């Protein structure tokens, strides 16, 4: 844990009442299907964001982040409503709003989840604040409640139309497992994901690319899925089989058909991934990752040259499988590699990026880690 308690005293003049932490995440497989009521299979990474909070006896909210040069933002609790302009503090303010907090507080944020790298630093931030507030004020929200409330904060307060996956895994993950999450009812199953004992490692490659298409591109993909659902008169793409999709092709535009094909095949790949993980068949898992990438690249059109380069270079260097993760148009890719090949895989990806004159990528590795938790009470 960073020395957030000492820094809190320096910034606010008293010790925090509570400190909570929440991790970022990587989605092993099941991309762009959380908003289609699908199954996803993410895991929490070891990097976490911490929130230290103290109750005030007025209605002021003061907040600062070590990742934002420690500048203190101050606001009256009554002004914290959707529409209030702001920067990064809109994420924690959104949580304060969605949880219905009625007392002033001081908050300090510090953490290691890389920002904007597709590892969901936004969910880590929301979930550490929500976990701390839930315990501090004895709100009694379950983890499912907190997932919906933090998603609401990001959707309605920050204005990002994200699905429910990131917050769910940041809150519910168990160490050593991936989380099979049914996005329709938020039911979960913890699936052992023990790469290390098989001599493998999951390399995370942050391409450092952020293509400006991101926001519009995401909304457009969701709109295509909604349009297919409306045209076919089904509750969600979860209810669509590949056969039905093929026989309904004439009712859809070519784009809608491709978007729906990604969703339907990706949902099947998630269930296949669970099966192969239960058998520790990592070679088959690698193939599923490759198929997922091809589907996101060709049918869903959310990859980009940097992500394709990271995937192709990892595979050429001997990875068992690789794919883009997250919303796309930049962000990170993952590669399932032999743990003894880490250095050479990194070198190969770095060289491929340099050859194409892309910005140098960053690399992380992580074992599946624990979800949000209270780590100190004052
Ligand atoms: P991702 O979730 O993939 O990291 P997003 O764009 O969804 O990318 O969220 C990143 C944003 O979340 C940052 O630009 C910042 O506004 C906010 N954020 C996340 N972590 C922190 C932090 N530790 N301190 C301040 N702001 C943060
Ligand atoms: Mg995010």
From TrEMBL:
Classification via InterPro entries: Galactokinase, Galactokinase_CS, GalKase_N, GHMP_kinase_C_dom, GHMP_kinase_C_sf, GHMP_kinase_N_dom, GHMP_knse_ATP-bd_CS, Mevalonate/galactokinase
Single GO biological process annotation from the record: galactose metabolic process
Q: Which GO terms describe its cellular component?
A: cytosol
**GO MF annotations for this entry?**
ATP binding; galactokinase activity; metal ion binding
Domain GHMP kinase N-terminal, residue spans: 100-172
One Pfam family, please name it.
GHMP_kinases_C
Q: Which UniProt keywords apply?
A: ATP-binding, Carbohydrate metabolism, Cytoplasm, Galactose metabolism, Kinase, Magnesium, Metal-binding, Nucleotide-binding, Transferase
Galactokinase N-terminal domain: which residues?
A: 6-54
Domain GHMP kinase C-terminal, first and last residues per copy: 274-353
- Look up the EC number in the record and give it: 2.7.1.6
Q: Tell me if NADP is a UniProt keyword of this record.
A: no
Looking at its record, which EC class is this enzyme?
transferase
Q: Member of which family?
A: Belongs to the GHMP kinase family. GalK subfamily.
Name assigned to this protein: Galactokinase
Organism of derivation? Candidatus Planktophila vernalis
């Amino acid at each position: 844990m960073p020395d957030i308690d000492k820094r809190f005293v320096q910034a606010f003049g008293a010790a925090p009442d509570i400190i909570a932490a929440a991790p970022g995440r990587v989605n092993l497989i099941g991309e762009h299907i959380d908003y289609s009521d699908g199954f996803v299979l993410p895991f929490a990474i070891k990097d976490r964001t911490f929130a230290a909070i103290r109750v005030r006896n007025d209605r002021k909210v003061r907040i600062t982040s070590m990742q934002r040069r420690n500048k203190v933002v101050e606001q009256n609790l009554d002004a914290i409503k959707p529409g209030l302009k702001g920067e990064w503090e809109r994420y924690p303010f959104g949580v304060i709003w969605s949880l219905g907090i009625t007392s002033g507080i001081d908050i300090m944020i510090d953490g290691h989840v890389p920002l904007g790298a597709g590892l969901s630093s936004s969910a880590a931030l929301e979930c550490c604040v929500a976990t701390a507030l839930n315990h501090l004020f004895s709100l009694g929200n379950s983890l499912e409640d907190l997932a919906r409330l933090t998603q609401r904060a990001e959707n309605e307060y920050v204005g990002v139309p994200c699905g429910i996956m990131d917050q769910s895994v940041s809150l519910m993950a168990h160490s050593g497992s991936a989380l099979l999450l049914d996005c329709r009812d938020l039911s979960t199953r913890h699936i052992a994901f023990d790469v290390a004992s098989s001599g493998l490692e999951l390399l995370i490659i942050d391409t450092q690319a952020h293509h400006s298409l991101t926001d519009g591109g995401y909304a457009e993909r969701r709109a295509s899925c909604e349009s297919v659902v409306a045209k076919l008169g089904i509750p969600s793409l979860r209810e669509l089989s590949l056969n039905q999709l093929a026989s309904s092709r004439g009712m859809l535009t070519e784009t809608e058909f491709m978007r729906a094909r990604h969703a339907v095949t990706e949902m099947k790949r998630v269930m296949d991934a669970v099966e192969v993980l239960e058998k520790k068949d990592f070679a088959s898992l690698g193939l599923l990752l490759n198929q997922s990438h091809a589907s996101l690249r060709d049918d869903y059109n959310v990859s980009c040259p940097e992500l394709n380069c990271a995937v192709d270079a990892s595979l050429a260097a001997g990875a068992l499988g690789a794919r883009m993760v997250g919303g796309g148009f930049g962000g990170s890719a993952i590669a399932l590699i032999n743990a003894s090949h880490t250095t050479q895989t990194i070198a190969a990806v770095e060289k491929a990026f340099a050859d194409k004159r892309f910005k140098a990528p960053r690399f992380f590795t992580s074992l599946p880690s624990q979800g949000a938790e209270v780590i100190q009470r004052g």
